[in-house]
Structures are given as structure tokens and as C-alpha cells.
Specification:
Blueprint (H helix, E strand, L loop, with lengths): L15 H18 L6 H13 L4 E5 L2 H11 L6 E6 L5 H9 L2 E5 L10 H14 L3 E8 L8 H11 L2 E5 L7 E2 L2 E2 L6 E5 L13 E5 L2 H11 L21 H32 L12 E2 L5 E4 L3 H10 L29 H6 L3 E4 L7 H14 L5
Helix pairs in contact: 1-8, 2-8, 3-4, 3-7, 8-11
Length: 380
Amino acid sequence: MDPHKHIPFVDVQGHRKQIGKAIDEAVSRVLAHGRYVMGPEVEELENALSMRTDGRHVISCANGTDALHLCLRAFEIKPGDAIFVPAFTFAATAEAICLAGGTPVFVDIESETYNISCESLQDSIEMVLKDGLLKPTGIIAVDLFGHPAAYPSLEILSNRFNLWVLEDAAQALGARLQDRPCGTFGRAATTSFFPAKPLGAYGDGGAIFVDDKVLADKIRSLRSHGQGGDKYKNIRIGMNSRLDTLQAAVLLQKLKLFDDELDIRNKIAQRYSSLLKDVVNTPTIAPEVTSIWAQYTIETPKRKQLTDTLKKAGIPTAIYYPYILPNLPAYQIFPVAPRGTPVAEAATSKVLSLPMHAYLSKTSQDHIVSEIRKFFGTTI
């Protein structure tokens, strides 16, 4: 059997060789105590995540989209509030704004990191102020592919225009900027535990990170139907978005491998880049950044042909993302940066993500690199 025919794009099972028994035992403990919703493992996980995010209050929830929505509800955004978001990201970022009653304004990205462009952001804020139809209120910065956004520059802009910043770290828990962990930037930060994420559960899950205890308590209330001190005393309109105890139990065990897995991801990314940089555009890492490589994304104008070639060689790939959000039917009605989003639009035709996970063998890496170089007519 050809070992290259089964290279997983993301390996959601590889960790079980090391901690499968521990996970099974953790799940069994939950089954034994029967507290399937908000059991003791949930608080234990929140405390463990707090230690990784400089002691922030951590509120777990049902998924990454709810994490964004809960923050926006807690910020009390309302109709007429303009929230600035990158045009190049997953729809959940803009979706949460709409669900909370605000208006997304789509901003271009940096060509090097795919993260929100501060130049385009400033133009967009000034455009909204000049138009006078919406009120500039906040910025959602996405740490795309595991690379932190430019938070020092974003902080300067947000202070100048009196806007809050919300960090969407769905792909970046464990990444660092200037030795500060993702999950600690902005008024609040969010993440996702979707199974394909670097720290993935066995189902959906998410978390919110905040410094302000009053805000944290408000989000906890919103997470559980707007409860007050009494379970049946609802003090606000909330939602139902609690993390299952079973997922918390799984994540607690996976956290034990997380740092080692991130080290391996970085070594694989460095190897990819050193062996491919002369044939494709490889990712750029900004100074003082440690990425977690949620995706390893190259650029090539021959994407379709390369994708087809790799597929025949048993190598899966993915396109993140084939469309910019303002070109999607659901989001075409919303404002766009005054000079458009040409960098984001160009990226949709060139980006291609390669297999990336901590269990990608050197043999598989060599096969992937060899097939890409062969496609471009070169060898190592």
C-alpha cells in the first residue's frame, strides 16, 4: 500500500496514540459523575486557559461563533453601530456582528500576513465618519492562520477614534506577539475548539477571555439565558451557549500535549518554507511573532493545476478562502473600504493551504515537497 495515499490534511486522531487512554478515562469520569453541563471539568479548563492568557477571566461557551456573539452582546452594540472587520476571513466574524444588531464594514488585508490592514482600516473609519450614516464603534481583528494581527498599531487607531478591539483568536490560541499570548489583546478575545483547530475538542466549543470582572460576569449571565444570582431570576435576555463537560474533559487532556504540538508545527512550517521558498510564495511571519500555524498557506498563480496534481499524488489541500465576504450574497449589502479590498480579492485566487498538523511525518513532508517541486520542474 502506498503510504502517501492517506496523508490527512488535519489529523484529528494522531494524539490518541499518546493520550487516548487518558482521554477515555477522563470521559469515563464524566459519565460516572453525570454532570454533563457545567460539570467540574468546565471550571478546571477555564482556570487552565486563564493561566495561559496572563490570568484573564475565561468564559467557555458552545462554539467560536457564540463567543464572538456573546462579546458583542455584552458590549451592547446596536443598530447603526459600524464594526470594522477584514474582508478575508470566515463568515462567522461578520455573522456575529449581524446577529448582535450591528453593521460590518469590510476592510482590506495586509498582503504578507492576511490580517487586517491598518491603512485600509483608517480609511474605512474616516469614510464612515464622513458619511454620517453609521457610528464607528469597534474593530474585530482576526489572527488568521495562527498569526497575530498588528495589535500595537490597532491600539493606536482604536484609541484615536475611541473604538474597542475584539480579538478573534479562533485560529491562534497559543500564538504570541512580542511575547504576549493571543487571547490577551483587546477589550476581549475569543477562540474556537472546533476539532480541526490546533487545540480541538471532540465536537464544538469556544471560549472568551476578558480582563474586566464586571464584563466577565455579564458574559457568564448572557451565556446562561441571562441568569442573575438565582438560576430562575433572569436579569437580561441571554442565550444558551454552555460548553459540554465532556468537551472540557477532552480539552484538559489535549492541553498536556499542546505546547509540544505547537513546537512540532513550527518545525514543519520552517521545513516547508526552506524547501519551497524558491518555487512558491511561502508565508511571512512578522517580527516578534510566534505563529501556531493553524494553516500553512502558500500562494501560486497556478493553483488549480497544482491542486489537481497534488490530489493525484494523494495529497489533500484546501483553499482558505475562495471568496471575500463582501462578494458573498449574504454580505453584499454592507459597506466596504473606500478603496475596496484588492489585496483580499487577489488572495482568493492564489492561496492554497497544505497539510499541517503535529503528526505529519517527515516522509509525508518529503512527499508533499517533492510533488510540488516536481510540478514546477525542479528538484531539491
